[in-house]
Amino acid sequence: MTMKSDGQEAVDGALLDLLAQLRSMSYAFVTPTPKTHEIVVRSRRGEAARTVSDVLGWSLPYAPGTVDRGLEASLKRADVLVPQGDLVRATIRVSSLDGRLYVHSAFPTVAPDSVFFGPDSYRFASLLRTRLGNDRAGQVIVDVGTGAGIGAIVASDCSPGSTLIATDINPLALRFAKLNARAAEKGIVTYQGDILGGYVGPIDVAAANPPYIVDSERRQYRDGGGLHGAELSLRMTQAILPRLNHGGKFILYTGSAIVAGEDRFRALATAAARTHECTIDYWEIDPDVFGEELESPAYRGVDRIAAVGAVFTRASR
After folding, report:
1. How far is 105 from 212, CA to CA, in rounded Å?
2. Which DSSP letter does residue 315 get?
3. What is d(CA 243, CA 289) in angstroms, rounded to the nearest whole number?
4. With contact defined as beta carbons under 8 Å apart, do 81 and 75 qualify?
5. pLDDT given at position 4
6. Are strands 203-208 and 140-144 parallel, antiparallel or unpaired?
7. How far apart are CA 232 and CA 50, in angstroms?
């Protein structure tokens, strides 16, 4: 389990104040893909930020004193401003999803501990809402590789009164997940480590949106490993299925490289389900995502990358 220092608590308090201020302003920002973000920012190269969305959505630098005083004070107290020439730039972004705000890493997400948020986050949230619906209350929900905490927060909306567990290998992700949960008036317990991160308790619902792209720089938030990026998703599946309570579910949003018309991850996921006495419901959510990645040598011979959903359900007693 992760612990906080007094200094970090004060900084996170400033970020919570920032989120409250943004909510009072009806702030909203839908985060696009990195490629789209790059194109938009490139078209505005040399411009200073003019709006709050420019600062906290598009990650543009701004001239001190030109944004809302209260927001700037919170950004300073949270220690998330860095100089950029005569301007300053926020090291965080704030995105909106289902009427809530989430803190995550600023663009470009080049640091190895970056906390991702983007179109996959919106599709993941939609998958959880669709597959959980109004699920029974009081469950144990484990958000594996939590990132900004979307899985735990959205799943708990479908299952009131549940115990929320969040795991991640990245301590900054756990910090942001806990902060975003507090802003949503939800409590989560965090565990740092690979996959289940040392959590040994029961699991009624597990949810995961792991990295599924082959990343030459091996950034944790982005690199899915071998099998054209499906290795981490397979390892998660193999680790989580035997830990599910009888009747429990593992809801997985990931990507799969389609080679010669074949979805090879589907076959591997189906085999894992059979091994652990689970049923599997598997389908394509989006047939073509991150097409620019096919230019990489790691994707030679790949037709396309599909966003897929898989729901594993362990047999009841």
Report:
1. 19
2. P
3. 31
4. yes
5. 60
6. parallel
7. 40
Residue 1 counted as domain residue: no
Conformation bin of residue 288: beta by default, left when phi > 0, alpha when psi is -120 to 50: beta
Q: What is the dihedral of CA 71, 73, 74, 78, to 10 degrees?
A: 140
Examine the domain organization and report whether 93 and 155 are in the same domain.
no
Averages of pLDDT over each 10 residues, the chain, 317 residues? 70 97 98 96 93 98 95 97 97 98 96 94 97 86 98 95 96 97 97 96 97 86 89 98 97 98 97 98 97 94 98 92
The pLDDT score that the predictor gives to residue 2 is 54
Tell whether 167 is covered by a domain: yes
- Calpha distance 262→99 (Å, rounded): 38
Quote the DSSP letter at residue 300: T
How far is residue 94's CA from residue 102's CA, in Å, rounded to a whole number?
5
Q: Number of folded domains in the chain?
A: 2
| Residue 275 structure tokens | 């091994």
pTM above 0.90, yes or no: yes
- Which CATH number is 137's domain given? 3.40.50.150
Do 172 and 291 fall within a single domain? yes
**What pLDDT score does 220 carry?**
76
Measured CA to CA, the distance from residue 112 to residue 106 in angstroms comes to: 13
Here the tokens at position 174 are: 């756990």
Token pair recorded at residue 224: 């899915």
59 occurs within a structural domain: yes
Is residue 178 domain-shared with residue 272, that is, in the same domain?
Answer: yes
Asked if residue 87 lies in contact with residue 48, where contact means CB atoms within 8 angstroms, the answer is yes
The answer to whether residue 186 is domain-embedded is yes
Supply the range of the domain harboring residue 96: 6-105
